[in-house]
Amino acid sequence: MGGELRNRVGQVLLVSIAAAAATVAVCPFIGGAGLDPAKLLRQEAPDWNIFLHLRVPRTLLALLTGAALSGAGALFQSLLRDALATPSSLGVSSAAALGAVAAIAFWPGDEMGFPVVWVAALAGAAAVIALVTALGHLRQFSSFTLLLTGIAVNGICTSLILLLHSLAGITKSFQITHWLMGGVDAIEFPVLGILALILAPVFWWMLRLSRVLNVISYGETWAAGRGVDFKRVTWQGFAAGAVIVGTTTAVTGPIAFVGLLVPHLLRRIVGPDYRVLMPASLFGGGAFLVICDTISRSVFAPMEIPVGVTTALLGGPFFVWLLWSR
Amino acid sequence: MSLLAIDGLRFTYPGREPVLRGVSATVRGPAVVAIAGPNGAGKSTLLDLITGQKRPDGGIVSLQGRNALTMGREELCRMVAHVPQTIPADVPFTVEEVVLTGRIPYGRGLYENEADFAAMEMAMDRARLDAFRGRRFSTLSGGEKQRVLVAAALCQQAPILLLDEPSAHLDPENEALLWDLFAALKNAGHLILVVTHHLALAAQNADRIWLVEGGRLAADGPPCDAMRPADLERVFRVPFHWHQSEEGRVFLTYGR
Hints:
heterodimer; A: 326 residues; mainly alpha; ABC transporter involved in vitamin B12 uptake, BtuC; 14 helices; 0% strand; B: 256 residues; alpha/beta; Rossmann fold; 6-stranded mixed sheet; 32% helix; 27% strand
């Protein structure tokens, strides 16, 4: 049986990595501006510049962001033992967005770097995670009640974002609107590197935790009776989710439904064991967002639609179907 | 050295009356101990204190002479395996996967090792689950689920097993099988603490009864001593009738 599981994890990992690698290899060549292969081979402008400085970093950003959102979705679904738990439904994404919008609105001057928005988004996400953890542990809220709390948090954050948007000047207001639309824009390689350095250790930790996540799915009493420090693992898991959601949201803006759609689709294909599901969700989520981004910049070319629109249009109906079939 | 010793255990849920007001007992060797008492008497809380899932307000739990309150969680779970009343019915894993959760205290690596699978096979065999090994837990009947949870506790290979109303969903055949299993485990060197409302079966099968009343042990001893009708009637507020066979087994009936 042990060998079977190892083989299955190996096979799923291989297929997931191949899918992610295939999207990264193919998608940069697709988009509004057609790229001339001959010019690319000769590294001639503007095709080479578009490819190297726009398409490639954008694709890698989509890969990392999709992995983070999908992995966080799988993680939260285990910790709360609820199929509908995602960074969005818990209010983590909207709180990160509020933090980022507040930073954009209040930071003096028109230019601001990634660290400022990142810290603000992370603070927003961390605040909601602290609230969820406190309600869950101190007041013994059920996962259902925590998800209801997430609805309230989403409502409050959305209202505050609209308030900040209304009070900001024209320039800031435009920046906020653009950021809120949720997009995978071109990004400088150093920022991409920082992003990867922040996310990679958390992804590794999530993969190492996957056997314990299986036991967490049985509920607190059973997990504690098997030697798992339920409260500590839950707290750590939420913190990890806050870091990866806050970090990617700071760069891309809010992107909905990835954390819901991808883990659920994959759970139906690879089964509920997190040792298989977690790596599949990370690589599958990355591949999914790369494809969504490619669709976003290709369907109405030369115009682009924000990737958040594409994920919502795909994820919204899936969400309804999920509720229907529960 | 005793297998289990509890001394002066006290516990109060926030904002409520004390549920345990100083429970003390010692079990020196392998035995089947039935814990009986009315609803809300603190039986499940007592198990939670022994397993370290709740910290007592006062008192000591000793496992094989060592203070359980200072043990690490995994070490504690290698000495005490706990089967709660229920787990979520929709757990999406197979019987084998549920049983293997008993091996978590032995290592957090991604994969189980040969020793883990050997322990699982032994537990499946003892709980007579071979026919169910590939079945999804969520598709089993209440009684079958209970046997799977007991098997997971056996897979934990702890010398002390605590079971909270394990026969609540079992038909008479499965209930009898479970008590037979307890007897076999005792003979293999285990201490079994089982919370139960099935007093008649406890009287026939347990070596010892802990009768919990008002946060204390109202009686502690073999069934013939600890299940006297007057004590039971006072604790449960219904008339009890008992008969002792020549071999010393106690048969109980109750009702007005």
